[in-house]
Amino acid sequence: MNINRLVSIHVGIGQAMLSGRPLIAVRSFEEDRLEDIFTRIADHLQKQLWVWQTNRGLISPQGNVPNTQTADQALGHLLQLSEPPLVWMKDIDQCFSASVIRGLRDIYYRWQGTGSALFLSSPNLIVRPELEREMALINLSMPNQAEILDILAAWQEDHPEAKKLPAKLIAATLKGLTRSEIRHALTRMAHHPDEENPIRQLQEEKRYLIAKSGTLEYIPKVPELHELGGLENLKDWLKKRRELLLMGEEAKEITPKGILLMGVSGCGKSLCIKAISSAWQLPLYRMEMVKIFSGAHGSPEQAFADACRLMEEMAPAILWIDEIEMGLSAGGSTAVDPVMSRIFAFFLTWMQEKPSGLFVAATANRIDLLPAEMIRKGRFDQVFFVDLPGVGERRHIFDIHLKKRGYDSDRFNLDVFADGTEGWNGAEIEQCVIAAITSAAMEQRDLELKDMYAARKQIVPISTTMEEQVRHIRNWAYERAVKASADE
């Protein structure tokens, strides 16, 4: 027996076969992929592959086996065979009973040393306690990059016009999808081409998958990096690390793991996270901590772990955790709240061991509420402080929001507005522009300079209304974080 060949077909299943295990359970949605794996193993071992499913019974290469419709009947027939074949039983976990469990245990003890195996598969297969010691359980991972590239190459044979697209970027975008879902996404791209951004079409397929989880949200529309006013230090950091993230396992030790943005509310932390997605051309997913703790998706610990593992399958990608201090505060590291404590412990370990290519981008308004073990090096690569914008940045932000709404910013004396809005954050500047446009529209005329002056007088910045809190945040971050903005 060629050991390397058997393992190369599938590492987990091949190793279970080599260890002589007659009962192998595989958790997977991909029956077409399992059929390919089991057929190749049968060919390699020169054995027949039999299949059982509840609506047809046992099916051998010679045809249907009569009186094997139920799992009891099928197992009874298999136990009478003098030369056991390889057998694949689909969805047998729906038929577990005392007699079925007994039949499976009989298979385990009688088929040892024969080189045969009984494979059980189901999307949500759970091994019964009575079979835990006899049965090997394998989670079939999603297709890796090499498999996706093979699927893509086969698809491109029928769509030669698509050969000009970047294969590695497409493969990275399709990571986390089943083979069928990959083909659906490619077909979608072929029928609804997006010349400017073909990757967007592929990401839509992931949107459907993420929507089913209930605790994660796919963010489709993200701004370009140049739409951020100022923040030159942060932009420079992102540009230099883009290539490292796309290298994946080749640069595992130096691949960026995550970034934590803290700062005054309204200064554009969330906008920065979205811009990372466009700058790195990676899909962005936001974890909904409220839904995780709602109980609608099972226990909070299980919902959180499931969301993290789903993101592992989606890598390379960006996971956005907004206001992380509200969901994972310092209280999580104590025994005050055991649920929070377990989630906190899981998150620390997961951040340390998650696969390369999965980048965690978190925001916090009060980083001083986070425990030191969360923000130490090795979990987040850098902690950036997004401060109130300086005068040059305020001018840039005014310019961005006027142009975004179709106005020529040269018509307005932006230097005056930049000077006169010290202590304002980006959200307040945007609201000033919106309020001025609204005032002009209500009088059915074009935007004028007087509207901007009037709108400015109506806004009291948060740095004034919450002066003590803002001062505390800025003082705390002064020597503890890297400024996202360049010194003016």
TrEMBL record:
Keywords of this entry: ATP-binding, Nucleotide-binding
Protein family: Belongs to the AAA ATPase family. Highly divergent.
All copies of domain AAA+ ATPase, residue ranges: 255-390
Cross-referenced InterPro entries: AAA+_ATPase, AAA_domain_protein, ATPase_AAA_core, P-loop_NTPase
Gene3D superfamilies for this protein: 1.10.8.60, P-loop containing nucleotide triphosphate hydrolases (3.40.50.300)
Protein's recorded name: Uncharacterized AAA domain-containing protein ycf46
Gene Ontology molecular functions: ATP binding; ATP hydrolysis activity
Domain of life from the UniProt record: Bacteria
